[in-house]
Amino acid sequence: MRAVRVHSFGEPDVLQVEEVTDLRPPGAGEVLVRLHAAGVNPVDAYIRSGQYATPPSLPYTPGSDGAGVVEAVGAGGESARGERGTSGESAAAREAAPAGAAGARGPAVGDRVYTSGSLTGTYAETALCRVEQVHALPAAVGFAAGAALGIPYATAYRALFQRGQASAGDLVLVHGASGGVGLATVQFAVGAGLTVHGTAGSEDGRRLVAAQGAAEVVDHTAPDSANELLALTGGRGYDVIVEMAAHAGLGVDLGLLARGGRVVVVGSRGPVEIAPRELMSRDADVRGMLLFAAPPAALAEAYAAVGEGLAAGRLHPLVGRELPLADAATAHREIMAGPALGKLVLVT
Question: Looking at residue 106, what is its pLDDT?
């Protein structure tokens, strides 16, 4: 099979497509997925460059997010998350089942799924996953869009609701809303009936964020953007701010918080200087999050919420650009250059 391989950490050109040995059959509690698309995330670039705290052993295949069809299920895989149902259940019946059904009964051969991690990497034609890393993909969601779900949507849910504790009546700011996580956060917030404002650095990005239901969208590159955002709240400030680039925005965020407000840091590319008195005067706080550090129960809740949102039509992942697997190096350059417009996906 074809897979992207990394033999040494470094610049994007270390990403090379190779013919590799087919993966072994899935073992107990494992699933083999024939991938049609793989999602590209900033964390993939950090790992590839050698900057990640716990780098993988070399050589390795990058990627956590993907979407495709279950090709094989190891012993116990179909019942690992609940009873599958009758052994004679047809593919048509599985396809007609609501989103999340595969997660309830365990995956079966022929199921359309998206991944939230893998044992072997998703920049490849196939991937071995643990059964809990595959989730039902509704028929209405294409494979490229499915590859945009795993990390971005679980991150958005955890940031907004689990770490940010957003609730009815809260005013939410998504600072850097036009990328995969930002758009997912806007969709979750709007779906929950919250008032959400967003920022984006390009006109196309601002239009995209507004189309997802953000009540106001501001250019965060404008010199007076902080005053504009505060004015939109009537001077009250935001209850929850989800920050995609803390190295650039955290200092501004603190002055935009309402009393008791929370900033949730989703991403940062370096240090930042802040004024702690901004937090003190508002009795507010800053909360970090890393999806890979979330407890299993929190992850299960997040992916259940994704499935529910897909089934209800409240969530609709947006793919900004599709590239062939051989262009993985280009994808890594683009995702770090920004500004982001939807999700960047590799198609196999």
Answer: 84
In the block, tokens 């609701």 appear at: 161
CA-CA-CA-CA dihedral for 241, 242, 247, 249, to nearest 10: -40
Read off the pLDDT of residues 227-275 as tens digits, 9 standing for 90 and up: 999 999 999 999 999 999 999 999 999 999 999 999 999 999 899 999 9
Stated length of the chain? 348
Segment 39-68, tens digit of pLDDT: 999 999 999 999 888 899 999 999 999 999
Domain with CATH 3.90.180.10 in the chain: 2-149+317-347
Identify any residues that bridge with 130 across adjacent strands, giving them in sequence order.
30
pTM: 0.90
Diameter of the chain measured on Cα atoms: 64
pLDDT band of 104, cuts 50, 70, 90? low
CB 126 within 8 A of CB 151: no
Q: Pick from 37, 3, 42, 38: which is nearest to 19 by CA?
A: 3
**Strand, coil or helix: 217:** strand
On the CB side of 34, CA atoms within 13 Å amount to 9
| Residue range(s) in the chain whose domain bears CATH number 3.40.50.720 | 152-292
Model pLDDT, residue 87 = 29
Quote the pLDDT of residue 85. Answer: 31
Under DSSP, is residue 200 helix (H, G, I), strand (E, B) or coil?
strand
Q: What is the pLDDT of residue 26?
A: 97
Domain spanning 2-149+317-347 has what CATH number? 3.90.180.10
Query: Which position has the token pair 């990390």?
Result: 151
Sign of the CA dihedral with 124 first, then 126, 130, and 134 last: positive
pLDDT confidence band for 337 (50 / 70 / 90) = confident
Helix 180-191 × helix 150-157 angle, to 10°? 50
At 259, is the secondary structure helix, strand, or coil?
A: strand
In which residue are the tokens 């850097």 written? Answer: 176
Residue 6: partners with Cβ closer than 8 Å, 6 or more residues away: 14, 15, 16, 48, 58, 59, 60, 61, 62
What is the dotted CATH code of the domain comprising 152-292?
Answer: 3.40.50.720
